[in-house]
Write a structure and sequence with these properties.
single chain, alpha+beta, 90 residues
């Protein structure tokens, strides 16, 4: 059985369903994947993000994002984004 494009070469686990989201790297190169492999790929990327196509089940991108990083890492990224956000012009 073929695995989704988001499955890392070192990850031999089977897919947990059809391709549900697209994982994009910092250069916007992407791979479609099941929720399991998409979460693992997202966790391996620096500055990656996840998008849900219109046919995705409700909450798929959110579940992948939550599974990709431990809670403390997500909070640090949120804090960094808030601190480093550009100032609004006066």
């Amino acid at each position: 059985m073929a695995r989704c494009p988001a499955a890392l070469p070192t990850d031999h686990t089977p897919c947990v369903g059809p391709a549900a989201v697209t994982v994009l790297d910092a250069d916007n190169a992407g791979a479609d994947g099941c929720e399991l492999h998409a979460a693992r790929l997202l966790a391996a990327l620096d500055r990656g993000h996840v998008l849900a196509p219109t046919h995705a089940s409700a909450g798929a991108a959110h579940r992948v994002f939550k599974a990709a990083a431990p809670q403390d890492v997500r909070l640090h990224r949120l804090a960094d984004a808030l601190v480093s956000s550009p100032a609004t012009p006066s």
